[in-house]
Write the structure tokens for this entry.
Amino acid sequence: MPLDPYTDDDLNYNNPQSRTSLEHNDPEAVVELISTYVDGWDDYEVIFLGYPIWFGQAAKPVYTFVANNDFNNKTVIPFCASGGSGIGTSDQNLAALSNGGGMAGGDAFFKQRIRF
Ligand SMILES: Cc1cc2nc3c(=O)[nH]c(=O)nc-3n(C[C@H](O)[C@H](O)[C@H](O)COP(=O)(O)O)c2cc1C
């Protein structure tokens, strides 16, 4: 969960000045989360990573989660909710981010994709 919760105004994607719009347009923007810690993380081999699509990509807070966890040697199965658009390149962009976060074997990060 974001440390600073999103208000309805923040979530207004029709306003180019809303918080989510500004965060989406700023590649440097980082959304701080209350916690990125998952109990027993090291014991999991398969991670189902679900997120809403914002502006055709994963919602920005998900980036913080991915960047702050070690996905090395895990099979990640991404899935998304959206208003209609598909998962698009969102999973690939999260995989690239995880490399930047010091993850080894990033190419195999998303071994499978599920589309709804
Ligand atoms: C800031 C923002 C941007 C969004 N951008 C998209 C988008 O590009 N494509 C899309 O299909 N849905 C978009 N949505 C809709 C969300 O994906 C959708 O609300 C979310 O998956 C949750 O589904 P629900 O509203 O039915 O609970 C956006 C929603 C928000 C708040």
In short: Residues 11, 13, 20, 52-56, 81-85 surround flavin mononucleotide (CB under 6 Å). The first strand starts at residue 46 and ends at 54. The chain is about 20% helix and 15% strand. Helices lie at 19-25, 60-67, 90-100.
